[in-house]
C-alpha cells in the first residue's frame, strides 16, 4: 500500500539559512503521526510545507500518490487546524463551518449535510447559531476542527491546536481528538512541543531538532530505546538522569564514574559498542528509593535534596556524592531535606550513549 504522505529529500532555506535539511518521511494510510520538538526545531515549518503554505527549496511532496510539490494548498486534499482559532467573528458557528464550502460552489444540500455531520461528530450541534464571542476556548477549537472536517479530505494537519487552552481543556480535547481519529481513520499529522500529547495521541512520533528528524518510532520505541541523548532527555518528566563516565567492554562490561561502578552484563548493547567515554542514563521512574532500593543490583547512598509531591506519587531529587539524581516514589512518603536516602536501580533498564556523538551504545 502506498503511503498517504511521502516526503522525499525535502530542503527549505531562507536565504543562506537552511531550516529543514534533506528530510525523508512516509506517513501510512490512516496513521496518526506527531511531529515533536522544542520551539524552533522545524516541526511547524515542515507542516506548512506539506500544506503548501511555504515553497520548498528542494525535494518533493506526495499526497495519496500525487506529486503536490507545487500545487496550491486548496488543491492538496488536506484540512488544516491552526494554533489560533481564526474564526470569523461576525459569522455564526454554522456560517464559519460552511463558508469555505460555499466559496467552493458546493450545492446547498451537500453543504448542509457536511455541516450537520461535523457538528454531530464534534458534539457542537447546540452551538450552530452562536457567534464565536459566545463560545468558550474549547468550543472555539472544536469549531476550528469542524471547519477542517467539513472539507471531507483524507489528510488532516494540526499545528499545536491545544496550546492556547488551559490544562483541563487540553486534556479533554486531547481525548476527543484521539476518539475523532479512531472514528474517522483519516491520516493525521499533529505538531506539538508537549510530550504528553505526543505520547498519548501518536501511532508514531518524529522527534525533531535543528530541522532534522532525530528519531522516528512508536511512543514505546522512543521511550524504551531512545536513539540518542537528545531524544532520551527530551522524553520524560523529569528528564532522564545522566552521568558522564567511562565504558569498559573488556571481559565483563561495566560503566564507571566518580564514586560509582555499574556492572552491565544485563544491558542490551548495540553491535558496535566499544570501550570509551560514555554517558549513563536512568529514568527517575526506574530509580528505587528507600526500602525498594535494597533489592536492586546497584545501590547508592544519598541525601534528600528536594521533594515534589504530586498526589499519586512523589518526585525526589537526592544528592549522591557530587551529583543529583531524580527518583519517582509511589504514594506520599514523609521525606525532609538532608534526610539520608538509599537509591538503587537495575542496569538492564539503563541507557548508554557515546560521549563523542551522543548516539546510543
UniProtKB/TrEMBL annotation:
<dbReference type="InterPro" id="IPR027417">
    <property type="entry name" value="P-loop_NTPase"/>
</dbReference>
<dbReference type="InterPro" id="IPR012340">
    <property type="entry name" value="NA-bd_OB-fold"/>
</dbReference>
<feature type="domain" description="ABC transporter">
    <location>
        <begin position="5"/>
        <end position="235"/>
    </location>
</feature>
<dbReference type="InterPro" id="IPR003593">
    <property type="entry name" value="AAA+_ATPase"/>
</dbReference>
<dbReference type="InterPro" id="IPR008995">
    <property type="entry name" value="Mo/tungstate-bd_C_term_dom"/>
</dbReference>
<dbReference type="GO" id="GO:0016887">
    <property type="term" value="F:ATP hydrolysis activity"/>
</dbReference>
<keyword id="KW-0067">ATP-binding</keyword>
<dbReference type="InterPro" id="IPR013611">
    <property type="entry name" value="Transp-assoc_OB_typ2"/>
</dbReference>
<dbReference type="GO" id="GO:0140359">
    <property type="term" value="F:ABC-type transporter activity"/>
</dbReference>
<dbReference type="InterPro" id="IPR017871">
    <property type="entry name" value="ABC_transporter-like_CS"/>
</dbReference>
<dbReference type="GO" id="GO:0055052">
    <property type="term" value="C:ATP-binding cassette (ABC) transporter complex, substrate-binding subunit-containing"/>
</dbReference>
<dbReference type="InterPro" id="IPR047641">
    <property type="entry name" value="ABC_transpr_MalK/UgpC-like"/>
</dbReference>
<dbReference type="Pfam" id="PF00005">
    <property type="entry name" value="ABC_tran"/>
</dbReference>
<dbReference type="InterPro" id="IPR003439">
    <property type="entry name" value="ABC_transporter-like_ATP-bd"/>
</dbReference>
<dbReference type="GO" id="GO:0005524">
    <property type="term" value="F:ATP binding"/>
</dbReference>
<keyword id="KW-0547">Nucleotide-binding</keyword>
<keyword id="KW-0813">Transport</keyword>
<dbReference type="Pfam" id="PF08402">
    <property type="entry name" value="TOBE_2"/>
</dbReference>
<comment type="similarity">
    <text>Belongs to the ABC transporter superfamily.</text>
</comment>
<protein>
    <submittedName>
        <fullName>ABC transporter ATP-binding protein</fullName>
    </submittedName>
</protein>
Amino acid at each position: 500500500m502506498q503511503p498517504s504522505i511521502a516526503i522525499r529529500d525535502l530542503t527549505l532555506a531562507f536565504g543562506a539559512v537552511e531550516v529543514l535539511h534533506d528530510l525523508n518521511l512516509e506517513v501510512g494510510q490512516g496513521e496518526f503521526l506527531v511531529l515533536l520538538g522544542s520551539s524552533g526545531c522545524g516541526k511547524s515549518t515542515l507542516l506548512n510545507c506539506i500544506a503548501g503554505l511555504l515553497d520548498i527549496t528542494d525535494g518533493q511532496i506526495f499526497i495519496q500518490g500525487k506529486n503536490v510539490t507545487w500545487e496550491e494548498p486548496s488543491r492538496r486534499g488536506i484540512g488544516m487546524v491552526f494554533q489560533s482559532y481564526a474564526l470569523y467573528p461576525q459569522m455564526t458557528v454554522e456560517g464559519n463551518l460552511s463558508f469555505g464550502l460555499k466559496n467552493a460552489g458546493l450545492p446547498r444540500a451537500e453543504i448542509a449535510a457536511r455541516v450537520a455531520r461535523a457538528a454531530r461528530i464534534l458534539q457542537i450541534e447546540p452551538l450552530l447559531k452562536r457567534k464565536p464571542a459566545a463560545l468558550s476556548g474549547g468550543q472555539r477549537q472544536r469549531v476550528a476542527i469542524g471547519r477542517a472536517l467539513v472539507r471531507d479530505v483524507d489528510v488532516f494537519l494540526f499545528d499545536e491546536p491545544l496550546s492556547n487552552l488551559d490544562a483541563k481543556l487540553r486534556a479533554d480535547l486531547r481525548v476527543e481528538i484521539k476518539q475523532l481519529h479512531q472514528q474517522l481513520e483519516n491520516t493525521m499529522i499533529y505538531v506539538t512541543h508537549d510530550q504528553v500529547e505526543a505520547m498519548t495521541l501518536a501511532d508514531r512520533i518524529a522527534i525533531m531538532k535543528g530541522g532534522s528528524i532525530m528519531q522516528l518510532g512508536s511512543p514505546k520505541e522512543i521511550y524504551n530505546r531512545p536513539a540518542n541523548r537528545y531524544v532520551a532527555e527530551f522524553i520524560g518528566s523529569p528528564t532522564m538522569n545522566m552521568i558522564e563516565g567511562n565504558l569498559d567492554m573488556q571481559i565483563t562490561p561495566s560503566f564507571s564514574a566518580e564514586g560509582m561502578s555499574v556492572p552491565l552484563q544485563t544491558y542490551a548493547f548495540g553491535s558496535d559498542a566499544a570501550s570509551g567515554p560514555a554517558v549513563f542514563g536512568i529514568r527517575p521512574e526506574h530509580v528505587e528509593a528507600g526500602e525498594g532500593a535494597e533489592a536492586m543490583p546497584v545501590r547508592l547512598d544519598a541525601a534528600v535534596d528536594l521533594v515534589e509531591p504530586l498526589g499519586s506519587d512523589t518526585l525526589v531529587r537526592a544528592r549522591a556524592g557530587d551529583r543529583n539524581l531524580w527518583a519517582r516514589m509511589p504514594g506520599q512518603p514523609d521525606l525532609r531535606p538532608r534526610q539520608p536516602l538509599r537509591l538503587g536501580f537495575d542496569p538492564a533498564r539503563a541507557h548508554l550513549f557515546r560521549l563523542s556523538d551522543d548516539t546510543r551504545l
